[in-house]
């Protein structure tokens, strides 16, 4: 057989995790009505800070924390600009990405080729040796499971808790939320920081666990895919998981097809994750009514309490 | 407590002053960054902003570079500014730039080794059409299916890069290159070249096109109904529909113009300064042009100045790399910072900032 | 009796305007107290201070004898002050129960909350389904959500900001029953309105504000509406007048107009038919959200329909855009001044070009003549008494009344054959409103056909020759406006929404 389905599924899960983490964070941000287009920038800064700490300390846990911190610092910039200084969210998000890519490259000078510590598996070898189910279910490092748990947590909090209700309300109508006395700006800043931490964590997972190297510009659009996934998922957490696996599946599959030297133009394979993302976006946004219903009504609008 | 109060009318003074202030603050923050890298900040800033123009040793090389680098930045940014004014966000100019270059180059190479004087104009048109068509993808998807143009235009950059790689390594590869990637050199062949028009200035057809675009955009935005409609659609979309502006037409128009200009910029680059299609032909002008557009306040004259300034940071950055060993990405971070400061200071033109004593509750 | 709420010397200034200047009054428990004043008199600011949204610059409040300084709405609610907003503080994409939970400090579990909603809504005659999406509710039902949200917290003081502007006369009746019942139970009500008859029916006392100051206090039952109006405005206003005209030929003919809404919570238009003649004013009444915006969009050309659905002098124009219709003489003025009828950040000159381009010849082969545009803007400013430093000022710097005069003037000076206006005097001070109504009547007098869409029934009765009602996207048959009673109009508007006859009776009984 050309491609082993089990290793493909394993590769799919790993490939999807960085975008999954970034997307679930962005989902929370967008649910509060903020559009942060700087995901790519936050991810790549997380990737580099995570990688540096991994190499310097040898601790994977510290590396992930550093990735989160890196993403958060960048998102704090975005939060100050858009929430306190009321700048345009689209422009500021773009600035964050452009700045983040430059900053990450700068921080990472001298690190390409360094070896990070090995990321430990969490289940015993015996479980991993079970045919088919073993590698798929038990063959991963802790972050894979944490990412899925994060999706479940976000879903539960948004749908079933008062915190989630307030988050959604702020995104639905910031004026109404303000009139009821909710601290719109504070809530949004916290959400933005959460999104930054998630994006940074996704980046750190990419450099430390998946690629195990630092390469300039290594996110190659993963942050933008994460943004697209949120739209694709109609702002629903479980659909983000599904979308991330779909994207991860195509990435993993096209890499294997390239390795197997199938007779398909490389350009087509290389661009397939992006093309598929675009196609999926088209399919989802052509269903007008649903797209409009689920989108937070205040998304991207500037909030300024008057009087 | 600091309180923001919305101004009834945006301040003209701050509208003009913020870019200058942002440049100044970026120099300070950049200086801190260079100091953190262990370099002398004052010297670094001098090398970036002063030496390329006025240092006798470098200026003869650097000055022409200023126009060479500013040309594509201005050309692309002018196109982007129309859409940004209308609230249409084409952020995939980098992709349109690549496709324009590939289409224009492919047109020239198709008639190789013709030296017809009609060839270069044909290449320009092919470049315009290539960039236009690439920008029409997000345009049509937005108007037909309401797909977000930000995401689509950006994702298409990666697709364009994949196409560029395959063009450079297979279907546009030079037969004389003995298997190395890269097309034939267009700049060294009469008929396909985009020559320096006035020796020693760096002025080529693309720079001329950029200047023409600045003037055309100025007239369009200030005098023409279409420019009025673009501004109206960006500020008050509902009022624009009420005035009779067809939003779909505007989307296609703005994306089309910005795509075509980016495509032309790509063609001018590949047939002039770059010379050939290669894997790393694009150097991020399409993204930097976004900064240029904002720094120029989406105003044609402002973009002209911002393009020159940004070109200066490119040249000065290379110089700083050479002289002080400042890593190349530092300049990219520096440019990003500039945009941050600009956006942060923008608050001054729309709001009064007042200090208020917090009353006891 | 010790007052429940006492306000002494509240002052609040914004740059350029003193919103409240040394305002004092008090409310006793169970009292229904009216706060009366024109738009811009400072009612909203005062109420925001009582509800903790705005902090006063000077002055003090006491509640139940103790000092009362709410730092935020949460503190106000905790002290027993609740508020029903004029522009609802509701979330369209959330359910009724979720909306109510958001307005409570410690909401019970969802199931218990649903039960309490049922209970309270029945007790006060305000039927409501907790699971419905608020975006799908009528304006009256949305108000019930707000009221119940307040009632669930057993408030000592209930603030109501212009509560009847979105209700049909029948719904107003029900609301008054509810408020009287609350008052009888000891809840004080601060009732903000500029509708004098309502205040005379409902309120025990009234404080009248003008330009931020208390200008008078009175017992509404003991004074006439005209007296109160004079206290409120500071002068007596002339009623708009018009000479008699014979309606001419049919200018605008609409038939079988149906249109799906553009937004998820919009109202579809259903088989609308109307006709307006030269020299005639047709009034279209209805509570907001019953298809007014959609009707205006279809008539202005912002939304295209089948060609034959709209005819102008017999020409089928349903599929043409706004500019083509303007060229033919059909002009519109939408409700939302900032962002729809005018671009907020653009100057008045630029806003003159917005609709005046074609008919006033403000462009030549695509190039705008800014000199001509400026002259047109100056003409509007002069002819319609728009108070502004000049045509270079941004639209949003103008007060509501002045901008509305500018917008209406811009259309009238283009000499329309048919003019359609939506809410021409909404949020406009009384003298500007009178000027606008007079201008509309003059336009009709000069032979134009005028359609006035409005929620303000008094206004419609004042200006219209014929009246019809828009209810859930359907338009009733027109009736001569003269001699119509409020009761009849109310029934035309659909009575009390989503209440059957029996329910209505039960509700009224429960509230008594």
Backbone CA Rg of chain B: 22 Å
CATH fold naming of the largest domain in chain C: Rossmann fold
Strand content of chain C: 15-25%
CATH class of the largest domain in chain C: Alpha Beta
Strand count, sense and barrel status of the largest sheet of chain B are: 2 strands, antiparallel
Spatial shape of chain B: globular
- As for the number of domains of chain B, it is 1
Low-confidence stretches of chain B: none
Percent helix of chain B? over 70%
Largest sheet of chain C: 7 strands, mixed
CATH topology of chain B: ABC transporter involved in vitamin B12 uptake, BtuC
The oligomeric state of the chains shown is heterotrimer
Tally the structural domains of chain C.
2
Provide the low-confidence segments of chain C as ranges.
none
Please work out how many helical segments of chain B DSSP would assign. Answer: 15
What is the averaged pLDDT score of chain B?
A: 90
* Termini gap of chain B: 13 Å
Structural class of chain B: mainly alpha
Structure in words:
The complex is a heterotrimer of chains A (307), B (361) and C (512). Chain A is built from 14 helices and no strands. With 307 residues, chain A is mostly helical. Chain A has a single domain (5-294), classed as Orthogonal Bundle (ABC transporter involved in vitamin B12 uptake, BtuC), CATH 1.10.3470. In chain A, helix 1 (5-31) runs parallel beside helix 7 (142-160), helix 1 crosses helix 11 (222-232) and helix 3 (60-84) packs antiparallel against helix 10. The longest helix of chain A is centred in the middle third of the chain and has 28 residues, at 184-211. Chain B has 15 helices and two strands. Chain B is globular, with a radius of gyration of 22 Å. Chain B starts with a strand and ends in a 6-residue tail after the last strand. The model of chain B has no long low-confidence stretch (mean pLDDT 90). Chain C has helices at 43-50, 73-78, 96-102, 110-123, 139-151, 169-184, 196-202, 225-233, 292-300, 322-328, 348-356, 370-383, 400-412, 430-445, 457-463, 486-492, 501-511, and strands spanning 5-14, 17-27, 32-37, 58-63, 66-67, 81-84, 157-161, 188-193, 205-210, 213-218, 250-259, 269-277, 281-285, 310-312, 315-316, 330-333, 363-364, 367-368, 418-422, 449-454, 466-471, 474-475, 479-480. In chain C, strands 13, 16, 19, 20, 21, 22 and 23 form a seven-stranded mixed beta sheet that branches. A six-stranded mixed beta sheet of chain C has the order 6-7-8-3-9-10, sandwiched between helices. A four-stranded antiparallel beta sheet of chain C has the order 2-1-4-5, with helices on one face. In chain C, a hairpin with a 2-residue loop joins strand 14 (310-312) and strand 15 (315-316). At the A-B interface, helix 3, helix 4, helix 11 and helix 13 of A face helix 6, helix 7, helix 12 and helix 14 of B.
């Amino acid at each position: 057989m050309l491609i082993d389905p089990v290793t493909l599924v394993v590769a799919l899960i790993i490939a999807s995790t960085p975008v999954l983490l970034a997307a679930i964070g962005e989902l929370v941000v967008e649910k509060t009505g903020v559009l942060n287009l700087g995901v790519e920038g936050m991810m790549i800064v997380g990737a580099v800070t995570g990688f540096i700490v991994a190499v310097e300390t040898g601790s994977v846990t510290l590396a992930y924390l550093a990735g989160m911190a890196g993403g958060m610092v960048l998102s704090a910039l975005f939060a100050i600009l858009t929430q306190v200084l009321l700048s345009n969210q689209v422009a500021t998000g773009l600035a964050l990405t452009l700045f983040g890519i430059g900053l990450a490259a700068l921080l990472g000078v001298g690190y390409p080729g360094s070896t990070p510590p090995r990321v430990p598996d969490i289940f015993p070898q015996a479980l991993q040796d079970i045919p088919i189910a073993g590698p798929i279910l038990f063959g991963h490092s802790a972050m894979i499971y944490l990412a899925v748990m994060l999706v479940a947590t976000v879903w539960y909090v948004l749908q079933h808790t008062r915190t989630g209700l307030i988050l959604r309300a702020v995104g639905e109508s910031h004026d109404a939320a303000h009139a009821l006395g909710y601290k719109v700006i504070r809530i949004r800043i916290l959400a933005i920081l959460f999104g930054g931490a998630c994006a940074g964590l996704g980046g750190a997972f990419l450099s430390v666990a998946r690629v195990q190297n630092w390469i300039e510009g290594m996110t190659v659009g993963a942050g933008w895919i994460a943004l697209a996934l949120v739209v694709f998922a109609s702002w629903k957490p479980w659909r983000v998981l599904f979308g991330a696996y779909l994207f991860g599946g195509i990435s993993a599959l096209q890499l294997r097809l390239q390795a197997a030297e199938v007779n398909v133009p490389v350009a087509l394979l290389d661009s397939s994750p992006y093309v598929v993302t675009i196609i999926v976006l088209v399919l989802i946004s052509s269903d007008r009514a649903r797209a409009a219903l689920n989108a937070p009504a205040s998304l991207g609008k500037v909030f300024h309490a008057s009087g | 407590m600091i309180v923001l109060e919305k101004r009834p009318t945006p301040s003209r003074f701050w509208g003009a002053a913020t870019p200058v202030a942002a440049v100044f603050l970026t120099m300070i923050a950049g200086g801190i960054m260079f100091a953190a890298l262990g370099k002398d900040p004052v010297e670094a800033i001098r090398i970036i902003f002063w030496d390329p123009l006025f240092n006798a040793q470098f200026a003869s090389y650097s000055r022409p570079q200023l126009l060479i680098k500013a040309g594509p930045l201005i050309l692309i940014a002018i196109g982007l500014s129309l859409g940004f004014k209308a609230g249409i966000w084409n952020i995939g100019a980098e992709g349109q730039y690549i496709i324009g270059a590939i289409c224009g180059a492919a047109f020239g190479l198709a008639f190789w080794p013709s030296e017809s004087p009609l060839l270069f104009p044909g290449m320009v048109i092919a470049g315009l059409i290539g960039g236009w068509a690439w920008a029409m993808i997000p345009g049509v998807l937005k108007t037909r299916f309401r797909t977000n143009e930000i995401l689509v235009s950006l994702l298409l950059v990666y697709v364009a890069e994949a196409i560029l790689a395959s063009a450079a390594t297979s279907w546009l590869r030079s037969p004389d290159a003995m298997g190395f990637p890269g097309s034939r050199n267009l700049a060294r062949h009469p008929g396909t070249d985009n020559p320096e028009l006035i020796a020693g200035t760096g002025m080529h057809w693309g720079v001329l096109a950029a200047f023409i675009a600045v003037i055309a955009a100025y007239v369009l935005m200030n005098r023409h109904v279409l420019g009025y409609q673009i501004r109206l659609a960006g500020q008050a979309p509902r009022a624009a529909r009420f005035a009779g502006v067809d939003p779909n037409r505007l989307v296609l128009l703005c994306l089309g113009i910005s795509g075509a200009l980016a495509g032309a910029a790509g063609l001018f680059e590949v047939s002039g300064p770059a010379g050939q299609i290669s894997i790393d032909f694009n150097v991020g002008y399409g993204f930097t042009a976004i900064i240029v557009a904002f720094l120029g306040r989406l105003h044609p004259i402002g973009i002209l100045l911002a393009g020159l300034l940004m070109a200066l940071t490119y040249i000065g950055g290379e110089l700083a790399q050479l002289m002080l060993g400042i890593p190349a990405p530092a300049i990219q971070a520096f440019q990003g910072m500039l945009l941050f400061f600009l956006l942060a200071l923008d608050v001054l033109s729309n709001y009064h900032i007042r200090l208020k004593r917090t009353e006891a509750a | 009796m010790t007052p429940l709420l006492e306000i002494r010397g509240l002052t609040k200034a914004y740059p350029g305007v003193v919103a409240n200047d040394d305002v004092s009054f008090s409310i006793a428990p169970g009292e229904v107290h009216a706060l009366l004043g024109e738009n811009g008199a400072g009612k909203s600011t005062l109420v925001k201070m009582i509800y903790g949204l705005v902090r006063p610059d000077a002055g003090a409040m006491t509640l139940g004898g103790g000092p009362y300084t709410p730092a935020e709405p949460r503190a106000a609610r905790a002290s027993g002050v609740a508020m029903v907003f004029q522009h609802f503080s509701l979330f369209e994409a959330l359910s009724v129960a979720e909306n109510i939970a958001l307005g409570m400090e410690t909401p019970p579990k969802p199931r218990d909350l649903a039960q309490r909603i049922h209970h309270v809504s029945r007790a006060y005659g305000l039927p409501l389904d907790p699971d419905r999406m608020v975006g799908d509710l009528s304006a009256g039902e949305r108000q019930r959500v707000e009221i119940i949200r307040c009632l669930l917290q057993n408030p000592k003081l209930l603030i109501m900001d212009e509560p009847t502007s979105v209700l049909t006369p029948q719904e107003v009746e029900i609301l008054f029953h509810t408020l009287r019942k609350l008052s009888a139970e000891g809840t004080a009500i601060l009732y903000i309105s500029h509708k004098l008859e309502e205040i005379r029916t409902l309120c025990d006392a009234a404080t009248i504000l003008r330009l931020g100051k208390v200008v008078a206090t009175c017992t509404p039952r003991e004074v006439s509406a005209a007296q109160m109006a004079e206290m409120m405005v500071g002068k007596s206003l002339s009623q708009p007048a018009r000479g008699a005209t014979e309606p001419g030929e049919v200018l605008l003919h609409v038939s079988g107009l149906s249109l799906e809404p553009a937004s998820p919570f919009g109202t579809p238009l259903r088989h609308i038919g109307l006709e307006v003649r030269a020299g005639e004013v047709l009034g279209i009444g209805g509570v907001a959200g019953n298809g007014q915006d959609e009707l205006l969009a279809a008539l202005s050309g912002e939304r295209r329909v089948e060609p034959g659905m709209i005819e102008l002098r017999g020409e089928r124009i349903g599929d043409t855009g706004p500019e083509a219709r303007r060229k033919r003489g059909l002009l519109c003025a939408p409700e939302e001044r900032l962002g729809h009828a005018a671009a907020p950040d653009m100057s008045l000159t630029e806003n003159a070009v917005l609709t005046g381009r074609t008919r006033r010849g403000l462009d030549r082969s695509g190039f705008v003549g800014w000199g001509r545009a400026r002259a047109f803007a100056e003409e509007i400013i002069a002819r319609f008494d728009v108070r502004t430093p000049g045509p270079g000022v941004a639209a949003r710097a103008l007060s509501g009344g002045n901008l509305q005069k500018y917008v209406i003037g811009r259309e009238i000076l283009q000499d329309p054959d048919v003019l359609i206006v939506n809410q021409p005097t909404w949020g406009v001070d009384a003298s500007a409103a009178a000027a606008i109504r007079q201008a509309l009547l003059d336009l009709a007098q000069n032979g134009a056909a005028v359609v006035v869409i409005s929620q303000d029934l008094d206004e419609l009765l004042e200006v219209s020759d014929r009246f019809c009602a828009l209810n859930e996207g359907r338009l009733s048959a027109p009736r001569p406006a003269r001699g119509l009673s409020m009761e009849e109009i109310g029934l035309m508007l659909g009575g009390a929404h989503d209440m059957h006859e029996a329910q209505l009776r039960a509700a009224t009984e429960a509230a008594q």
